[in-house]
Amino acid sequence: MEFQISLFQVFVAFFLPLVLFVATRKSRAGNLTRRLIPGPRKLPLIGNLHQIAVSDLLHRTLRDLANKHGPIMHLQLGQVSTVVVSSPEMAMEIMKTHDLVFAYRPFLVVAMITTYECTDIAFSPLGNYWRHLRKICTEELLSAARVESFRSIREAEVLNLVKMIKSDEGLAVNLSEKVFAMTYAITARAAFGEKCRDQEAFITTVSEETKVNSGFFISEFFPSLKFLDIISGLKHRVEKIHGEADRIIGNIVKDHKESRSKDTSKDADKEDLVDVLLRVQEDGQFPLTDNNVKAIIFDIFSGGSETSATAVDWAMAEMIKNPSVMAKAQAEVREAFQGKGNVDETGIHQLKYLKCVIKETLRLHPVFPLLLPRECSQSCEVKGFEIPSKTRVLINAWAIGRDPNHWPQPEKFDPERFVNSAVDFTGTNFEFIPFGAGRRICPGLLFAVPNVELPLAQLLFHFDWKLPSGMREQEFDMREAFGISVRRKNDLVLLPSPYHASIIVT
Ligand code: HEM
Questions:
Q1: What atom in ligand 1 is closest to the CA of residue 296?
Q2: What is the average pLDDT across 118-140?
Q3: Is the pLDDT of residue 195 over 60?
Q4: What is the percent of the chain where pLDDT is above 90?
Q5: Residue 241 host element (H or E)
Q6: Considering only CA atoms, which of 415, 437, 412 is closest in space to residue 427?
Q7: How far is CA 190 from CA 16, 187, 209, 446, in A?
Q8: pLDDT tens for residues 4-52?
């Protein structure tokens, strides 16, 4: 990460004259909004880039700027005219009132490479192809019935996690590492079925690709200077990693095709996600190429694994910092599953307080603090401000979740605020949008929730948790790492002790 920031500084220092020359000729739409939407003063050519480069945690920098300039703010980021939205009211304007205009994604060089030319779900432009993919998600891939069909996979992998923790009894465990490995294993089994060749290699490559994608690409701010990504070697690095991931997923798809041609009688409820996509491909009602199938599987991996693990990680960290919350959540889960000695998904709906803990975690730590970037498809008036076509729009869900006008004591971790509250993350309460809202809302919500609930319930049921000796809650590290999705900067290392009523660990 330090490398990426210093690359930016080197860029500003040495390439500025070049930028001056090219950008004056190629800059488009940018300045149109200047007199219309408030924003900080801009420098020639780099605009406001110097103001956002002060920290690598963009959501925090943007919140500080919004506090000075307002909930709708214009920034000129190099050549890219950008509007940042930081209040629930403005978010509702973008994602509800004018959702059709703003449900586009900007063209990003790195996304072109890693998403098979934007034929995945997340970066595909609004249109028939994207609509069809979303339909496949709701009806087939990520439906409630499909998610339920993966229940035994989740239960088995979470139990594995519990057993692994138990096997290191008496030692501090790197919980982050183990939880990330577990969610990748769940997604891999749901996507590919029982262990398939190269599964481990695929997981390693995808997580590497996710890391590189979170880096700083000059072309994101200076689209006309794409060649600098080539000179810096970043484009080559992404292409290399993606080439390897493509080779592996290509083999997996090929193996699935071969086994389908031998056995055509697979029950729909036994299908893995690659099977589902290949069946849609075979049906032929909607043309899906092999690359389209691969692009969708990549989305499910990058969307499905790290996100849930990140949420579990932050929830455990917050509970360690707030022992009374942990005690209450633990009492709830132990009371509900006392007779069984283990948690399964049949009774998990009883854990009302745990659900509040998860909501509170996602309020303070939305996995994508700026959601995914949107683009305005045609000039549009929003609350009296004119946003020109092609403007990039960032929605600061992190700042919105901490808006003092909507959340009393916004910085406090207090799950009680969700007890007896109807506020939910399904995209109708714009003060709480960790999964986004509108047409582009996360289609993996039903898949994500049990991936967060079950591990947390099991971790709380089977173990008591504390910090390794010598570390106190007050000095516990809660820093965030740089990235599009925001993980903890340092892994969560905790000391577990087994619970006597557990049938697994005692
Ligand atoms: C805690 C877990 C998760 C969180 C917090 C989360 C959050 C988000 C957010 C904020 C967006 C962008 C919404 C917007 O632009 O308005 C998104 C999009 C998306 N998510 Fe998730 N997600 C999670 C889990 C998942 C899972 C499990 C899957 C798939 C299995 C998934 C697949 C996707 C896809 C494909 C998109 C792109 C949708 C589109 O552009 O049409 N996500 N997610």
A1: 35
A2: 95
A3: yes
A4: 72
A5: helix 234-262
A6: 437
A7: 48, 5, 20, 14
A8: 444 444 444 444 444 444 444 444 444 444 458 999 999 999 999 999 9
Six token digits for residue 167 = 């096997």
Contact yes or no for 188/182 (Cβ under 8 A) = no
C-beta pairs of 233-236 under 8 Å, 24+ apart in sequence: 235/109, 235/113
Measured distance CA(464)–CA(415) in Å, rounded: 20
Nearest CA to ligand 1 atom 1: 308
pLDDT digit string (tens) for 51-72? 998 888 999 999 999 999 999 9
Tokens of 436: 């986004």
Q: Is the CB of 297 under 6 A from ligand 1?
A: no
Q: What is the pLDDT of residues 345-395, one digit of tens each?
A: 999 999 999 999 999 999 999 999 999 999 999 999 999 999 999 999 999
Q: What is the CA radius of gyration of the chain?
A: 23
Tokens for 220? 């994101």
Q: Write down the residue that tokens 């909507």 correspond to.
A: 406
Cα of 447 vs centre of ligand 1, distance in Å, is 10
Query: CB of 348 within 8 A of CB of 454?
Result: yes
Is 122 near ligand 1, meaning CB less than 6 Å away?
A: yes
Listed residue (478, 474, 471) closest to 494, CA to CA: 471
- Cβ of 430 closer than 6 Å to ligand 1, yes or no, is no
Give CB contacts under 8 A, 24+ apart, made by 44-51. Answer: 44/20, 45/16, 45/19, 45/20, 45/78, 46/12, 46/16, 46/19, 46/78, 47/75, 47/76, 47/77, 47/78, 48/75, 48/76, 48/77, 49/12, 49/77, 49/78, 49/221, 50/12, 51/75
Q: Which of 140, 435, 485 to mutate to test the pocket of ligand 1 (most atoms within 8 A of CB)?
A: 435
CB under 8 Å to 244, separation ≥6 — which residues?
205
Cβ atoms within 10 Å of 13's Cβ, excluding its own = 8
Confidence of residue 233 (pLDDT cuts 50, 70, 90): confident
pTM of the predicted protein model: 0.91
Assigned token pair, 458: 């099991």
